[in-house]
């Protein structure tokens, strides 16, 4: 247990707080890095996902691509892109954005697909245009699954951003690799605890956001889960479809 | 390509290392997740605790976990055991929810019929619930298998040998072919294990294919009915 005491002492040591390589600077770097990658991935994946979810076209292609991307090892992608782009921040950004796309894409179209067809048919029958259906029916009802997708993308990017320190001078992962090099276990463990804390805080924020985005009318009268009889299958094995790897 | 052919021995060794790292966690996570998932499905209180805990464990990034486990368990950082424990934790975290959902998806009527014809609680689980949840469990296990194979490569940055070593080595020496070979082999290994699980599913759950044809039959019947 005193390994953990050493690690906490390392975290609390004022000497580790100063400068561009200090804990606060690295944490912010890690966060900004994560947010930018998730944002870039969202800009690409959400419109495409909405389109797939609304039209029902291209779904099998999207499933196959996300499945294939899931199998690709993140470290392999990181090192390969780093060799192509050269050492610097470009490689991790490209790799992280690519990795964040599948879960967000899956969340976007699965959210649309999970909506009861009769709801959409009723919207159409009362005279809503397609864009109104998308904007006022499908997006609000599909939001919880989209947020779930963004959540797993974010967690995956936080994890992979740690790994990115292997190819670039960025983020909290630097402490892990620096400690590894100098055999300073307190630094390795302290850095690890910081990353874990960051991931759990983000996870907590997303849990709250996910509760908030459920439309009020839906939240109060959620239909009982009856997978065996629901008209449209609940999208996949739900934890699996939006989950990425670390 | 020349790099590939002249390093077949190395590739084969790393593939074996990788199998040793990734197969035990896949099996272990299934064995551990089934009883936990059963508890989560059976008891309301257990459900909240187990599913929240597994969600949090899943949220922990892999690389930091590799560093934390030695401090808790006392394994050495580079030992395969360290990685096997970490990968098992992820597998269990993913699988527990699947098991709980799978067991919950078993039709209540079916369960009650089993009770009515005299099945005990124990045999309902083994002979009714588990087989009927089988397709869901299989789907979950396939995800675990693919992500475990992919995750195992991360261990390379702390010096645990696997297909991931091809990435670190290729990066440091600037050999693109080595990294590409590593990616291809990792994906191939994941697909291989995935395929093996699908085959296993066909052998153990022969009725799933039957059900698919049934559903088609139902749909055909419905269309016929509607047009009549």
UniProtKB/TrEMBL annotation, chain A:
Keyword Transport set for record: yes
Transmembrane segment boundaries: 31-55, 67-87, 93-112, 157-177, 189-209
All residue ranges annotated as the ABC transmembrane type-1 domain in the record: 27-206
Pfam families the record matches: BPD_transp_1
Superkingdom of the source species: Bacteria
Localization per record: Cell membrane; Membrane
CDD domains found in the cross-reference section: TM_PBP2
Membrane topology of this protein: Multi-pass membrane protein
Region (Disordered): 223-246
Keywords for this protein: Membrane, Transmembrane, Transmembrane helix, Transport
Similarity section: Belongs to the binding-protein-dependent transport system permease family.
PANTHER family reported in the protein's UniProt record: GLYCINE BETAINE/L-PROLINE TRANSPORT SYSTEM PERMEASE PROTEIN PROW, POSSIBLE OSMOPROTECTANT (GLYCINE BETAINE_CARNITINE_CHOLINE_L-PROLINE) TRANSPORT INTEGRAL MEMBRANE PROTEIN ABC TRANSPORTER PROZ
Record-given protein name: ABC transporter permease
Organism annotation: Cryobacterium sandaracinum
TrEMBL record, chain B:
Localization per record: Cell membrane; Membrane
Superkingdom of origin organism: Bacteria
Residue stretches in coiled coil: none
Alphabetical keyword list: Membrane, Transmembrane, Transmembrane helix, Transport
Principal location class: membrane
Topology in membrane: Multi-pass membrane protein
One Pfam match: BPD_transp_1
Residues annotated as domain ABC transmembrane type-1: 15-197
TM ranges: 20-41, 48-73, 79-100, 112-128, 140-167, 179-200
Database matches in InterPro entries: ABC_transp_perm/SBD, MetI-like, MetI-like_sf
Keyword Isomerase: no
Family membership: Belongs to the binding-protein-dependent transport system permease family.
Identification of the protein by name: ABC transporter permease
């Amino acid at each position: 247990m005193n390994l953990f005491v050493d690690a906490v002492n390392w975290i609390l040591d004022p000497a580790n707080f100063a400068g561009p390589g200090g804990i606060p600077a690295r944490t912010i770097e890690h966060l900004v890095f994560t947010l930018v990658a998730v944002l870039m991935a969202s800009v690409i994946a959400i419109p495409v996902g909405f389109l797939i979810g609304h039209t029902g076209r291209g779904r099998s292609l999207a499933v196959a691509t996300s499945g294939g991307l899931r199998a690709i090892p993140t470290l392999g992608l990181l090192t390969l892109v780093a060799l192509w782009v050269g050492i610097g921040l470009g490689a991790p950004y490209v790799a992280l954005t690519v990795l964040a796309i599948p879960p967000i894409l899956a969340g976007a179209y699965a959210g649309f697909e999970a909506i009861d067809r009769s709801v959409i048919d009723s919207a159409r029958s009362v005279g809503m245009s397609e864009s109104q259906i998308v904007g006022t029916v499908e997006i609000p009802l599909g939001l919880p699954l989209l947020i779930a997708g963004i959540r797993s993308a974010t967690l995956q990017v936080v994890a992979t951003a740690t790994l990115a320190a292997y190819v670039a001078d960025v983020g909290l992962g630097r402490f892990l690799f620096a400690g590894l090099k100098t055999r300073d276990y307190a630094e390795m463990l302290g850095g690890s605890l910081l990353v874990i804390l960051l991931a759990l805080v983000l996870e907590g924020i997303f849990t709250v956001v996910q509760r908030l985005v459920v439309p009020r009318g839906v939240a109060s009268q959620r239909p009982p889960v009856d997978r065996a009889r629901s008209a449209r299958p609940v999208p996949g094995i739900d934890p699996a479809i939006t989950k990425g790897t670390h | 390509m020349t790099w590939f052919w002249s390093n077949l021995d190395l590739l084969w060794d790393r593939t074996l290392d990788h199998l040793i790292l990734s197969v035990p966690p896949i099996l272990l996570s299934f064995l551990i997740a089934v009883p936990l998932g059963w508890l989560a499905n059976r008891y309301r209180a257990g459900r909240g605790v187990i599913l929240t805990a597994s969600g949090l464990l899943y949220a922990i990034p892999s690389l930091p976990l590799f560093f934390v486990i030695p401090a808790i368990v006392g394994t050495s950082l580079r030992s395969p055991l360290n990685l096997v424990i970490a990968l098992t934790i992820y597998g269990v975290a993913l699988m527990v929810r699947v098991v709980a959902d799978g067991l919950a998806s078993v039709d209540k009527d079916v369960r009650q019929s089993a009770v009515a014809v005299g099945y005990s609680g124990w045999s309902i689980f083994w002979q009714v619930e588990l087989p009927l949840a089988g397709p869901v469990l299989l789907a979950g296990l396939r995800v675990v298998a693919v992500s475990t194979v992919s995750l195992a490569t991360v261990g390379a940055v702390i010096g645990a040998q696997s297909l991931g070593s091809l990435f670190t080595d290729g990066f440091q020496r600037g050999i693109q072919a080595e990294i590409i070979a590593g990616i291809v082999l990792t994906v191939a290994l994941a697909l291989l294990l995935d395929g093996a699980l699908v085959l296993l599913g066909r052998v153990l759950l022969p009725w799933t294919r039957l059900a698919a044809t049934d559903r088609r039959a139902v749909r055909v019947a419905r269309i016929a009915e509607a047009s009549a």
